[in-house]
UniProtKB/TrEMBL annotation:
Gene3D superfamilies reported for this sequence: 1.50.10.10
Protein family (similarity comment): Belongs to the N-acylglucosamine 2-epimerase family.
Species this chain originates from: Pseudomonas kulmbachensis
Swiss-Prot/TrEMBL keywords: Isomerase
Domain of life: Bacteria
GO molecular function: isomerase activity
PANTHER family: N-ACYLGLUCOSAMINE-2-EPIMERASE
Coiled coil: none
Transmembrane region(s): none
EC numbers on record: 5.-.-.-
Protein name in UniProt: AGE family epimerase/isomerase
Length: 414
């Protein structure tokens, strides 16, 4: 790793690096504009094209609304009509007009009628960002999404989100997921800003305390991903399907990085509002980052971060996913902002070096979403380039304060 000698050489305060991040973010946004379809946003292939059979899906649409809202707030042209397209889809064909909530595809044409917390967290995040962007219909969508989260998914007794339900809100799944609760935490941070309500930060703290301070702390500070309905870990979950894109077997170093960043946002947000911020938020963020680097980075004979580990912290699924590197760089930036400690600068630069050399696709645009151990493009887990959200946020977070969520922070910078 590069041996820096002065913290004032930080890339976080470097005007050329800030400009490089801005240009990368703008290129990512321009690439993603091709994802629009009549009923929302669809997934793009690795060339940035929509396959002939491409159809909208709700997670992609919500993430695009969120991302294009951030871009519009920044002043990037061409994004406002795309936000409005996505809002119309979320208020129309993607919504269950009979029972409330959202399907995973228009009118559940994919056959999946279950209502998932993961998906609903992104709908609320999208609506909150569109509110900050000043788009018509966003406030109504946000009110409905918040109502569904509170009425259906939030469990006051458990201090966490329930996982999924049947279409009519029966058949609560006897499973609790760290992934959906992680993205719930992200959404709650945004809701605290947009709704100006402290309770969302209290709920975020309860989730973090359970998932990280209780369970991850007992698992080498790598998040336990899967639990039963009583929050007991399920160590064999998906052992026969270890490369699942949302519920993989074992531990996921990328989520340790993501949680580390979220804990620091939560700490800063609570302090800004005059709320208590327990010391373990910073300490656990440090530990999560350290464990993810130790067990995930360059551990299998090749450079990069492996997707998953077993319970002995040995690599299982060795592909390198783009979102993992995006979160690693963002976590390093957050810890550097919080502590001004030199090692996080070194990690921050090292992660961006890897992204620049291996992830950024200078031939076809955007980032490769998946690489093999040889750091060549592969599509075993994530075909194509459907995700703007992770990479784009990685270009924004190092330029913004920790204390408020992305949309609100960008608006204040104008």
């Amino acid at each position: 790793m590069t041996d820096l000698t002065r913290t004032n050489e930080s890339w976080l305060t470097s005007a050329p690096h800030q400009q490089w991040l801005h240009e990368q973010g703008r290129a990512l946004v321009d690439f993603a504009k091709a994802a629009r379809v009549p009923l929302g946003f669809a997934q793009l292939d690795r060339f940035g094209q929509r396959p002939d059979d491409a159809t909208a899906d709700t997670v992609t649409t919500a993430r695009m609304v969120h991302s294009f809202s951030l871009a519009h707030i920044q002043g990037l042209p061409g994004c406002a009509p795309l936000i409005d397209l996505g809002l119309a889809a979320l208020a129309g064909p993607l919504r269950d007009a009979e029972h409330g909530g959202w399907f995973s595809s228009p009118a559940a044409q994919d056959g999946n009628t279950r209502k998932a917390a993961y998906l609903h967290a992104f709908v609320a995040l999208a609506a909150s960002s569109a509110v900050v962007a000043g788009r018509q219909g966003a406030a109504e969508l946000l009110a409905e999404a918040v109502g569904v989260l509170e009425e259906r998914f939030w469990s006051e007794a458990e201090g966490a989100l329930l996982e999924s339900f049947a279409r009519d809100w029966s058949d609560c799944e006897a499973y609790r997921g760290a992934n959906s609760n992680m993205h719930g935490t992200e959404t709650f941070l945004a809701l605290a800003d947009v709704l100006d309500e402290d309770l969302w930060l209290d709920r975020a703290l309860r989730i973090a305390e359970r998932v990280i301070h209780q369970h991850a702390a007992q698992s080498d500070y790598l998040p336990v991903e899967h639990f039963d309905a009583h929050w007991q870990p399920l160590p064999d979950y998906n052992r026969d399907n270890p490369a699942d894109g949302f519920r993989p077997f074992g531990k996921t170093p990328g989520h340790a990085f993501e949680w580390a960043r979220l804990l620091l946002h939560l700490e800063a947000a609570r302090k800004q509002r005059g709320l208590s911020a327990p010391g373990w938020l910073l300490e656990d963020a440090r530990q999560l980052f350290s464990s993810a680097c130790l067990h995930g980075w360059n551990v299998d004979g090749g450079s990069g971060i492996v997707y998953t580990l077993d319970w002995n912290n040995q690599p299982v699924v060795r592909e390198r996913l783009h979102w993992t590197l995006a979160e690693a760089s963002a976590a390093a930036a957050a810890l550097l902002q919080r502590t001004d400690e030199h090692p996080y600068e070194v990690w921050y630069q090292q992660f961006w070096d890897y992204i620049d050399l291996h992830m950024i696709d200078r031939q076809h645009g955007s980032w490769h979403h998946e690489l093999g151990i040889d750091n060549l493009p592969s599509e075993n887990i994530w075909p194509g380039k459907p995700d703007l959200y992770h990479a784009y946020q990685a270009t924004l977070l190092p330029r913004l304060p920790l204390a408020i969520s992305l949309a609100s922070a960008l608006k204040l910078r104008r």
